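Why show two proteins at once? Because comparison is the fastest way to build intuition. When a single record is shown, students tend to memorize it. When two are placed side by side, the eye starts asking what differs. So, the first record is below.
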Amino acid sequence: MTLTTHATLGAVIGKLAGNPVLAFILAFCSHLLIDMVPHGDTGLSDNFRIHKKNQKLAVAYVAVDAIVALAFVLLIANTRDIDHLRNFTWGIIGGVLPDFLVGLYDLTKTPLLRWFYRVHFFFHDFFVKRRGEVPLYYAILAQVVFIAYLQTKL
């Protein structure tokens, strides 16, 4: 999933959660669960991590994804009256943190994050390895529709 999808879902969870700790935990867990849906990036991820091919393309994809997510979150934050800003913020942080932890592991290979890396990809690859991947174009289109729906809940 794109960071924008995770951030938007985290924001909605933050709005619905009763406190920032709950918002963070639920959004963090939602990241793992929603990543189970095939979303077109397994080939890009495998090429980067396993085959060491197309690394510049993968880095460019992540950079654009992060910029779009940041812009979208700022747009939402500046155009909506957010009642519980702390919950909103911690929901977004919980929603995107798993991907940042995986990226940190990719960069450092620290044993402290290896377990989480494995857990993340257990969920990420759960259906993809059993049923196959969907084309990235269709996955991004589906995520745009999902994000549009989610932002109506903010």
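Second record. Ask yourself what differs from the first in the token line.
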Amino acid sequence: MSLNPQLLQEMELLIMFDARNPLEGIKVHHEADPGKIDAAKRLHELGIITLSDGGYLTPRGQEAIEHAEALINILQARPH
């Protein structure tokens, strides 16, 4: 498995959502970076977000962001 640019863009977009507030969505505007626009479309196709230009996390998206945040926390942990 490799972290290709598309996967990284999807992860960056995913972590823009607030995992603690499922009622807070995002909007990817049509003048946004094309990579971000495409990432939103892919996340929508995967059933992770409700709209192809953002929206809200689906239950699957909520699970995905919880895993993403857990991984980020593990990788950012510094030994004492």
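One difference worth noting in the second protein: Residues 5-76 form one domain.
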